[in-house]
Design a protein that fits this description.
- With 416 residues, the protein is α+β, with helices and mostly antiparallel strands.
- The chain has two domains: 259 residues, BirA Bifunctional Protein, domain 2, CATH 3.30.930; 93 residues, Rossmann fold (3-Layer(aba) Sandwich), CATH 3.40.50.
- 34% of the residues lie in helices and 24% in strands.
- The protein contains 13 helices and 20 strands.
- The strands form five sheets. Strands 3-7-8-15-12-11-9-10 form an eight-stranded mixed sheet, sandwiched between helices. The protein has a five-stranded mixed sheet with strand order 17-16-18-19-20, sandwiched between helices. Strands 4-6-5 form a three-stranded antiparallel sheet.
- A hairpin with a 5-residue loop joins strand 13 and strand 14.
- The radius of gyration is 25 Å and the shape is globular.
- Bound molecules: zinc ion.
- Zinc ion binds next to loops.
């Protein structure tokens, strides 16, 4: 594709009616019904992957007292100015007008990350070594105070949906967990045809925990990368203060590079929140915490996909999977029957019953980037078939409805 033909996700989002942003909520996208289908399919996919890998899904509050972030260290390290802080008081604390007491400071925050709250889930009750590794997933909605000049479509947003997870594990379990996460990441990238590269960031000058723990953890991360035969580069001293990490950079089909997934070890937060488990001998021990995200952010990931596919999503993600195009009004009734049958099998089928010429209907379905088109005329009516053609022009010939369902289902299941 000529670079000048490439549209950005904001333009495609408008044209295909997927999403948009409005000045009424800068940096927070509005999802239209078709965009929401893509969002939900990705959610479904990530849930499938995480459930198979033994994660448990959770949900934590969006609005939380900011003392949590003071305890976690985010208040200082991430910066309170990067969060949305609100003065919210219980009724008895408010003044007679129902407003905040005079001279009070914001005491609540819209969470900018899920991590500290996942420790509250962990500490809900005493934990035993038998429960570890405990893998808690959350598709959480976060808010980050991006400057208004810096928000950009879905790429840089103030309201972020993250496919987050936190794993609480013993030191001995780190390697297996990292190995499994890398495995999940690769499965995921291969599905989208991304080329990927891993970067291992090691201990910085300022760090939490002991050198011994860091050395062992860095070795575990590196061994997992080597065992998976992954190409990686080292970023010495570039780890977060709380633990070493692996960042993943991908290249999309347009050759652009993005940082997507991340997996980070954390020696600090278990300490800050005094997390414990009871080991085999009845002794209280501190678990290690692993943060990981595959998409990073749904918003950014959908922006990348929208641009990579230029709106021509594969059938499993396509908001409309097949457009049925009756040639004349006489064919509408049969087309409606086919449409109903397809929809009953769960296929997202739509029918174009406008009194337009077939060429116009085909053109419009192509503009909407619908992956399958089903043309219905006299011949199809007589033989109870549909003439199927693909978005790229390939002609699959006449298919019975059952064969069409199989063909569509095969593409959807394989996610191609
Ligand atoms: Zn985290």
């Amino acid at each position: 594709m000529d670079k000048t033909d490439i549209k950005d996700h904001k333009q495609i989002g408008q044209e295909l009616e997927l999403f948009f942003t409005d000045d009424i909520a800068p940096g927070s996208p509005f999802w239209l019904p078709k965009g929401m289908i893509i969002f939900k399919e990705l959610e479904k996919y990530i849930r499938e992957l995480t459930e198979k890998a033994g994660y448990l899904e959770t949900s934590t509050p969006i609005m939380v007292k900011n003392e949590l972030f003071k305890q976690s260290g985010h208040w200082e390290k991430f910066g309170e100015h990067n969060m949305y802080n609100l003065p919210i008081y219980d009724e008895e604390e408010t003044n007679e007008m129902g407003g905040s007491p005079v001279g009070t400071l914001p005491n609540y925050t819209l969470k900018p990350m899920n991590c500290p709250e996942s420790t509250i889930l962990y500490s809900f009750r005493p934990r035993s070594y038998r429960e570890l590794p405990l893998r808690l997933a959350e598709i959480g909605r976060l808010h980050r105070r991006e400057k208004s000049g810096e928000v950009n479509g879905l790429l840089r947003v103030r309201q972020i949906t993250m496919d987050d997870a936190h794993i609480f594990a013993t030191d001995e379990q780190i390697f297996d967990e990292i190995y499994a996460i890398l495995d999940m990441m690769m499965k995921f990238y291969d599905k989208f045809g991304f080329k990927y590269e891993f970067r291992l960031a090691t201990r910085p000058e300022q760090f939490a925990g002991t050198v011994e723990n860091w050395n062992k953890a860095e070795k575990d991360l590196e061994k997992a990368l080597k065992d998976k035969k992954l190409k990686y580069s080292l970023k010495p001293q570039d780890g977060a203060f709380y633990g070493p990490k692996i960042d993943v950079h991908i290249k999309d089909s347009l050759g652009r590079e993005w940082q997507l997934s991340t997996v980070q070890l954390d020696f600090h937060m278990p300490e800050a929140f005094k997390l414990e488990y009871i080991d085999k001998n009845g002794q209280a021990k501190r678990p290690v915490m692993i943060h990981r995200a595959i998409f990073g952010s749904f918003e950014r990931f959908i922006a990348i996909l929208t641009e990579q596919y230029q709106g021509g999503f594969p059938a499993w993600l396509a908001p409309v999977q097949i457009a049925l195009l009756p040639i004349t009004d006489n064919h509408n009734k049969f087309a409606e029957k086919v449409n109903k049958e397809l929809r009953e099998t769960g296929i997202r089928s739509e029918i174009d019953t406008r009194s337009e010429r077939l060429q116009a209907k085909i053109r419009d379905a192509a503009l909407q980037k619908v992956p399958f088109m089903g043309i219905i005329g006299d011949k199809e009516l007589e033989t109870s078939t549909v003439s199927v053609r693909l978005r790229d022009g390939e002609d699959l010939g006449s298919l019975k409805v059952s064969a069409l369902v199989n063909k569509l289902q095969e593409n959807i299941d394989k996610k191609i």
